[in-house]
Task: inverse folding
């Protein structure tokens, strides 16, 4: 059944559906429409497709992604328009969960309260004032004084303190992850959760139903509930193809007692802590947060949770006095949602790139980028910024890896240095620049993360821990291979093939 479900929800289904619709339209037109009306019908359809394309262009915030729809509609007007309406438009008006997620996300904004004194202090930094202003004023996520941030450059390094903090939980544990898979990692966490639930600790677990489709039984959330663990499968897989299925919960959030939070790149499965080696050595990270900034992660979790359960009328019941620590710069956890026109994840990345003066180092598992990101990377390199990107040496999805490599020639030619992590798969998502700013989170440099998924990240400013993030990149670089221009080149036919695939990358 899981194999069948994967086929049903693969992006190829969209293409097959479009072809069938177009074929049905052509057959119907040739069979039932009088010959004298065919030319008029084709003209009207072409005009209508042009109007739809103009609408897409007019309202697009990410035209590189919407280019896929434009191409499909121009090639196959009838099928293209119907599929676009079905997957991109109608669900916004008809999907119950879409509306509830949108409503809860909007309602939760009142809980992100910015301390004006901290904001004023941050804005006095002329160098980074624009970065602070974007996150706090435009994106709407508070800036806090950083009083507790720890970066672990491998999943297995962050897993041990995570277990210790879970064992010490007294009031509540919130977990929100894209993938959960039984094994050494999840089983050890699961045992603690069951024990804590039996002690009266509130335990809530939310996992993405599509992300865990191949790793968990279909009704795993029911099993957890029987164990006293509150559980939700986010955006459960539906037998009918629909647009809301594209919007997955890719976040990684753990909140313990409202005083400690974990995030980073890892999911709750054995390859993320290198117990199991599927694609060689797994390069990832974990971050541990204490202090006032934990509240933003609590709100992020409660937002998606309550879109399903509607059980918390007042989020502040889960707010706790923060653990005090020595101030070390500023910190701003943030979330990204596909339900609005704010491209927070991409804009944070672009702001870092456009502000960089000396260097910008990037970890990303996928490099499937739009023209805005491509141009910013190239422009930074042309300004003399040392731009380096580490991508996987061992792919998890070969077609995605090959599309990633299709971007290499343009970037390398313009001075961007690209390294492939030789020992295995780089799953980290990190930007670090000029020893003064970094962001660590769940957001890949691909269309799905930047435009379609629920994501989260943590921006760090003027913290000593930024040096640890930079050192982790340089250490990984030692184990990586610098890709040359010759290696990046492809033949004319392969180049053309991957250029076509890049148009349809949002479906992959």
Result:
């Amino acid at each position: 059944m899981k194999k069948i479900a994967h086929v049903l929800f693969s992006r190829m289904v969209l293409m097959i559906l479009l072809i069938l619709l177009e074929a049905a339209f052509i057959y119907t037109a040739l069979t039932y429409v009088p010959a004298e009306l065919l030319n008029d019908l084709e003209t009207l359809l072409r005009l209508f497709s042009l109007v739809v394309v103009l609408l897409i262009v007019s309202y697009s915030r990410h035209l590189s992604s919407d280019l896929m729809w434009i191409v499909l509609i121009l090639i196959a007007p009838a099928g293209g328009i119907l599929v676009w309406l079905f997957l991109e438009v109608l669900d916004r008006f008809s999907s119950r969960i879409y509306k509830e997620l949108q409503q809860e996300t909007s309602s939760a904004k009142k809980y992100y309260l910015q301390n004006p004194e901290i904001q004023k202090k941050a804005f006095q930094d002329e160098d980074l004032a624009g970065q602070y202003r974007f996150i706090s004023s435009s994106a709407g996520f508070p800036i806090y004084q950083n009083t507790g941030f720890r970066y672990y450059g491998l999943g297995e390094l962050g897993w041990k303190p995570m277990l210790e903090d879970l064992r010490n939980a007294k009031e509540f544990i919130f977990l929100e992850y894209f993938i959960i898979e039984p094994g050494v990692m999840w089983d050890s966490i699961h045992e603690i959760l069951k024990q804590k639930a039996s002690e009266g600790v509130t335990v809530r677990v939310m996992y993405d139903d599509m992300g865990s489709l191949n790793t968990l039984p279909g009704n795993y959330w029911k099993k957890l509930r029987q164990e006293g663990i509150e559980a939700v499968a986010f955006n459960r897989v539906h037998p009918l193809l629909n647009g809301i299925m594209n919007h997955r919960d890719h976040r990684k959030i753990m909140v313990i007692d409202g005083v400690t939070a974990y995030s980073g790149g890892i999911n709750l499965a054995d390859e993320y802590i290198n117990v199991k080696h599927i694609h060689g050595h797994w390069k990832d990270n974990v971050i541990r947060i204490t202090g006032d900034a934990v509240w933003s992660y609590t709100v992020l979790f409660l937002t998606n949770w309550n879109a399903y359960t509607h059980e918390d009328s007042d989020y502040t019941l889960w707010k706790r006095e923060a653990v005090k620590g020595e101030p070390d710069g500023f910190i701003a956890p943030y979330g990204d949602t596909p339900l609005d026109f704010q491209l927070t994840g991409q804009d944070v990345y672009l702001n870092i790139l456009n502000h960089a003066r000396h260097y910008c180092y990037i970890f990303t598992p996928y490099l499937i980028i739009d023209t805005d990101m491509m141009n910013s990377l190239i422009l930074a390199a042309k300004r003399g910024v040392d731009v380096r990107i580490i991508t996987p040496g061992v792919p998890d999805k070969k077609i995605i890896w090959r599309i990633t490599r299709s971007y290499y020639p343009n970037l390398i030619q313009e001075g961007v240095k690209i390294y492939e992590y030789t020992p295995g798969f780089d799953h980290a998502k990190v930007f670090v620049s000029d020893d003064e700013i970094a962001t660590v989170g769940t957001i890949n440099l691909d269309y799905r993360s930047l435009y379609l998924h629920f994501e989260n990240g943590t921006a760090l400013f003027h913290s000593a821990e930024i040096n640890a993030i930079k050192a982790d990149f340089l250490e990984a670089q030692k184990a990586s291979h610098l890709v040359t221009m010759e290696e990046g080149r492809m033949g004319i036919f392969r180049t053309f093939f991957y250029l076509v695939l890049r148009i349809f990358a949002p479906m992959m």
Notes: The first strand starts at residue 144 and ends at 145. The chain has a mean pLDDT of 89. Residues 35-59 form the longest helix (25 residues).
